[in-house]
Design goal:
The model is unreliable at 6-16 (pLDDT under 50). The strands form three sheets. This protein has a six-stranded mixed β-sheet with strand order 1-2-8-5-10-3. The protein has a single domain, classed as Jelly Rolls (Sandwich), CATH 2.60.120.330. Helix 4 (63-79) packs across helix 6. The protein contains eleven helices and twelve strands. The chain has 292 residues and is an alpha+beta fold. It has helices spanning 8-11, 18-24, 55-58, 63-79, 91-95, 100-124, 129-136, 206-211, 250-256, 266-275, 283-287; strands at 52-53, 82-86, 143-150, 162-165, 171-176, 182-186, 189-192, 199-204, 221-223, 231-238, 245-246, 264-265. The longest helix is centred in the middle third of the chain and has 25 residues, at 100-124. Helices cover 34% and strands 19% of the residues. Bound molecules: 2-oxoglutaric acid and fe (ii) ion. 2-oxoglutaric acid (AKG) binds next to strand 3, strand 9 and strand 10.
Length: 292
């Protein structure tokens, strides 16, 4: 199916403040204007331990290789909420001019990758693949394509690229231009999320945490800036269908004896994300049912 690119009007909600655009267009800026300062403790431990999932083994005909890769994927989703997939075609996209055709091709390729990952993760959750497809209506899954540009910043410790947050959807794919900046939270500490060049960094997003009744973790992350090099990241958030109602999967609730999250239509979740304040308790936190 040819992806439908959302109109300018429907994307308006995702656009950032015009003031930010003005800032990024000011190459001679010597300090961060006070209304944009964000004192951050961006110190983070380096990490080479973000798991790597072998996509070829995951889709391999060899049952032994496949089951090892599936086990690895399950652990990565539970323990880190982040993993790298080595993927040979990736480097093409980051270097070429992002035109409509490239976006369409990237959308199609990542859609296939996404479906394979969902199949694999349903196995780790001991769910039937068709169950996930039916409940989340993945044939019309909603993808959001975002490019982030972080110009060099004269005072990186007074600013933040993107404050800490979690993402909507099931799996989010991120590629970048080789400049570090993404940090992720793991066991209460911040780590630099280094990823090899020919890889896609994948993170579990809110709706996989909800759907898995908390087995998979949608992990907080943020992007910091530096004073030397421009950074570009390309993010593809892969969700269910806009009209799917996402709550914990019924077979998992039966196993756990309770649903640990409430359910919400994906469209309503997205609307709340863009219209509600970005500060305070996150929407994912608000969906959690405590005291079960
Ligand atoms: O640029 C990055 O590394 C992070 C971007 C991100 O987290 C997002 O766009 O949701
Ligand atoms: Fe994000």
């Amino acid at each position: 199916m040819e992806p439908i690119l959302a109109s300018q009007a429907s994307l308006r909600a995702f656009q950032c403040d015009t003031g930010i655009k003005m800032l990024s267009d000011s190459p001679n800026l010597k300090s961060v204007p006070s209304n944009f300062t964000f004192i951050n403790e961006s110190a983070a431990a380096s990490s080479d331990s973000i798991p790597i999932v072998d996509f070829y083994a995951l889709t391999s005909g060899d049952p032994d290789q496949r089951s090892k890769a599936i086990h690895h994927l399950g652990k990565a989703c539970e323990e880190w909420g982040f993993f790298n997939i080595l993927y040979i075609y990736i480097y093409i996209y980051i270097y070429i001019y992002i035109c409509r055709d490239v976006v369409v091709e990237y959308t199609e390729r990542t859609r296939k990758l996404y479906r394979k990952l969902v199949e694999a993760v349903s196995e780790t959750l001991e769910l039937e693949t068709h169950y996930v497809n039916e409940v989340l209506k993945l044939d019309s899954s909603f993808q959001i394509f975002v490019t982030n540009l972080y110009p060099p910043c004269p005072q990186p410790d007074q600013a933040i690229g993107i404050p800490e947050h979690t993402d909507p959807g099931l799996f989010v794919f991120l590629i970048h231009n080789g400049v570090a900046g993404l940090q992720i939270e793991h066991n209460g500490e911040w780590f630099n999320a280094d990823s090899p060049h020919n890889s896609i960094l994948v993170n579990v997003a809110d709706h996989l945490e909800i759907f898995s009744n908390g087995r998979c973790k949608s992990v907080k992350h943020r992007a910091v800036v530096n004073n030397e090099t421009e950074r570009i990241s390309i993010v593809m958030a892969n969700g269910p269908s806009m009209d799917a109602v996402v709550g914990p999967a019924a077979p998992l609730v039966a196993k756990d004896g309770a649903a640990f999250y409430s359910s919400m239509k994906y469209e309503d979740y997205m609307e709340s994300l863009v219209t509600k304040s970005r500060y305070g308790k996150s929407l994912l936190e608000q969906m959690k049912i405590h005291g079960n």
